[in-house]
């Protein structure tokens, strides 16, 4: 049960970071620290495990999608 709880918490934290990255465009370092990740490298690994891309790649993809919608 502890492993499942840890995975759920990890997924929640990644979802929180994802929302913050999209909403206010803050740097990854600031957002991950705000969400309780002390180590940026570890955060990027966790994010990639959950989203299958790095935070930077995710934000870039979202920007491209948003720009395409506005054309």
Verbal overview:
With 71 residues, the chain is mainly α. The protein is built from four helices and no strands. It has helices at residues 2-24, 28-34, 40-51, 55-69.
Binned, the helix content reads: over 70%
- Uncertain segments: none
Q: Look at the helices and sheets and give the structural class.
A: mainly alpha
C-alpha end-to-end distance: 48 Å
User: In angstroms, what is the radius of gyration?
Assistant: 13 Å
- Annotation field: number of helices: 4
Strand content: under 5%
Strand tally is 0
- The mean pLDDT is 84
**Shape, per Cα inertia axes:** elongated
Describe the main β-sheet briefly.
none
Order of helices and strands: HHHH
Strand and helix map with partners:
Elements: H1 2-24, H2 28-34, H3 40-51, H4 55-69
Search tags:
71 residues; single chain; mainly alpha
Question: Brief description of this entry?
Answer:
The chain is an all-alpha fold. The protein has helices at residues 2-24, 28-34, 40-51, 55-69.
């Amino acid at each position: 049960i502890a492993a499942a709880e840890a995975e759920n918490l990890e997924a929640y934290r990644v979802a929180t970071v994802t929302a913050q990255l999209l909403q206010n465009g803050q740097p990854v370092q600031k957002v991950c620290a705000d969400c309780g990740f002390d180590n940026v490298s570890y955060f990027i690994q966790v994010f990639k495990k959950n989203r299958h891309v790095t935070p930077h790649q995710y934000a870039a993809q979202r920007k491209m999608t948003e720009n395409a919608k506005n054309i």
